Structure formats: structure tokens, C-alpha cells
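Continuing the batch. This is chain 6 of the set; chains 1 through 5 are on the previous pages. Same settings as before, nothing changed between runs. Recording input and output for traceability.
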Amino acid sequence: MKTKILLFIILASFVMTIPTSSQTSKKKVWLSGIVTDNAGNPVKGAMILIDKKNTYVVTDDKGFYKVKIRPDAGEITIFTFPGVIEKVMIKGQTELNITLNSSRNAEENQAVADNKVDFGYEKIEKEDVSSQVNKLNTDKNKYASYSNVYDMLKGAIPGVQVIGKSIIIQGISSPTMTNEPLFVVNGIIVTSIDDIHPVEVKSIEVLKGAAASIYGSRGANGVILINLKKGPDDYK
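Output for chain 6:
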């Protein structure tokens, strides 16, 4: 009798260690690909959302992304700031190259996505995102005589306080040790913008609140987005 009981316990333990089909079906898989624009150029700094949830994965300078997803994930959303959104059904694929339709107008872009996007903390209305973005018009010739980006921002955007090389976006209460915003240059997070000359700057945008939350806790003090001119056509 004792032998039968012992065999039963061993068999039961063995069965419990075998993964069920439901457990294996939930194992995450890798999804990767290249994001390009209409001209076939790689898009860097594009944010990757899966089923409307932020993955905190962004494309690199070659437009490449790699993200772990559930096998039953429905759609991937590519979000570039500002305003280009592309949604593609995954359909069980593990490699998915995506071309952004940047020629789509603003109303069509808004229609591509739902009214709300979950960026990790809460579902955010797109209107709330766009209302918390300030853009600096860098086309003005006066900026050519400036020596750095800090001078360009000083007094140019409401709610942005610039003292020397310190930038504080007002109206933000951050739990972090520093009040400095996050700097993103051409889609890449950088620690300093000291070496950027105003003549190189194509556009500057300041994000706060819901718009800055796209970058997670790193954007708690707001985000300074700087796009640099890439070629001769950009200097015209």
C-alpha cells in the first residue's frame, strides 16, 4: 500500500510540472521590423504601442524596432511626434515592416487611431496631448545670430523658464531629484544640448503633462524635442 501511495505522489508531481497549453500559449514572442517613411527612409525615434499600450520601445537610427508581445496581440501602432500615426494588424506575424503615410492630413491621422491612447499611466485624449505641446517657430532669421539653443528658448515659449543653461518647464511637479526636462534630439534621448548651434535647428517643441507622459517617468519634468536639419534642402 505504501508503495502505491508513493508512486501516486510521484506521478502527481510529474503531471503538475507539465505546462498546460494555456500556459504555453501566453508565452511572449518577439516582434521586429523596420519603420520607414514614404520615401523609404528609416524613421528613428518612433514609439511602438501594442494594442494601444506604450511599450517604451522606440526605433533606432535605422528605423529598427524589436518588442516582446503576447501571441494574441492584435495591432501595432507607430507614433511619431507630432501627428503621424500608423496602425497595422499583427496577425500572428513576428516580422513586420511598416511604412508611415506621412502625407495623410491631420484629420485622417486622427481617424486612424481611436480617440484615446494608453501611454502607460492613463488613457489620454489626443486633444489633451496636442494642447500641451508648444512649438517654436525657428524660421525667423533672428535665431541665426544666437549662440545656443538656450537663447532661442528664452522668453520664446510661455511657461518655459531659462536661466543660463538651466531650463524649467513651469506648472510641473516632479518627484525626481532634478527639475531639468528630458532632451530628445532627432528622436534620440541626449544628456546635453550645449553643442547645438541655432542654425542647425529645424524645429523645437516643448511637451508637458499628457504629451510628455509618452516618454514615461523620464518625461516627468517635461520634454524638449529638437529636430536638426539633415541636408541642403533643410537649409532653404
